[in-house]
Write a structure and sequence with these properties.
By secondary structure, the chain is an alpha+beta fold. It is built from 7 helices and 13 strands. Bound molecules: adenosine-5'-diphosphate and magnesium ion (MG). The site of adenosine-5'-diphosphate has 21 residues, from strand 5, strand 8 and strand 9.
């Protein structure tokens, strides 16, 4: 289980580190210092956050620093209101990734998280996670090359598996889907995501998730002439998605009909 250095020290600045001992038992705090990786790390311009890829004791890692776009000055951009560690961004994403990994869903495993408190109400957050080896974002891949209908279908199936567990990805876009060289598919960036309780399949959050992804693909296609995306590809993704969803719905119906509750449920219909 995860380990948290729940310090009682109330002098500021101070930091709290949460780690996943399944991967590393103790994590040196200087790994969270981006400048430490300036020689051998790879810095990505991810749009919203600063992301650094590096290796530590043979483990490839990704360090993400949470920040908001469009604000002046690094300190302001990276500062968040602190109302308890359980409500911080990296705490939530760390636990969400742990849970998704336990459910067997394709996500990077979290390694550690740091909450830096500059005062009682202001924090800066960072997350260290496993790097998905030999991966690129869906947006990067289809800028370069065309994906088979089968791979588009597999992307749909993966999204449906998350939805089957009630997982709402609040920012499902073409940069938050990673494809590996051997066409493994992972979802990333679970900041602000939530798990919905099991609901009937007509609920609209499934749809809004897919609409968000389609909008993002169309936006890239508008900007990039070589972007290999069109309505045919979307239909393949939807086919894969619907295949899994229909299977789940049928499975649920079978369960209900064969259960002791069936007579009661039928009376209610
Ligand atoms: N686990 C990972 N393995 C490989 N690359 C990653 C991983 N996590 C993030 N990245 C890269 O960093 C980028 C930004 O990460 P993300 O978690 O989406 O943060 P942001 O909130 O800045 O969008 C991704 O689009 C991807 O290129
Ligand atoms: Mg992202």
């Amino acid at each position: 289980m995860q380990k948290f250095n729940n310090s009682t020290n109330q002098t500021f600045p101070c930091s709290r580190i949460l780690s996943n001992p399944d991967i590393v038992y103790t994590i040196p705090e200087n790994l969270f210092d981006c400048s430490q990786h300036s020689c051998d790390g790879e810095f990505l311009d991810s749009g919203r956050g600063t992301v650094v890829l590096f290796s530590y004791l043979g483990q490839e890692m990704v360090l993400k620093t949470y920040h908001r776009g469009g604000l002046p000055g690094r300190f302001v951009r990276e500062s968040y209101l602190y109302t308890g560690v359980y409500k911080t961004r990296m705490w939530k994403e760390f636990h969400m990734l742990m849970e998704l990994h336990t459910l067997g869903l394709p996500v990077p495993r979290p390694i550690a998280a740091r909450c830096e408190l500059s005062g009682p109400f202001v924090y800066r957050g960072q997350l260290l996670m496993e790097k998905i080896p030999h991966s690129n974002t869906l947006a990067e891949v289809i800028t370069e090359t065309e994906l088979s209908d089968h791979t588009w279908g597999s992307i749909g199936e993966i999204i449906a598996r998350f939805h089957a567990h009630g997982i709402y990805h609040s920012d499902l876009n073409a940069s938050n889907i990673l494809l590996t060289k051997d066409l493994g598919i992972y979802l990333i960036d679970f900041d602000k995501c939530s798990i919905h309780p099991p609901t009937v399949p007509t609920t609209t959050w499934f749809e809004s998730n897919l609409r968000r992804l389609k909008r993002s693909l169309l936006k890239y296609a508008e900007k990039t002439p070589t972007f290999h995306f069109d309505d045919g590809k979307w239909q393949e993704l939807k086919k894969g998605y619907d295949g899994i969803r229909v299977g789940i719905t049928q499975g649920l119906l079978t369960l209900v009909v064969s259960s002791e509750l069936a007579p009661t449920l039928l009376r209610l219909l």
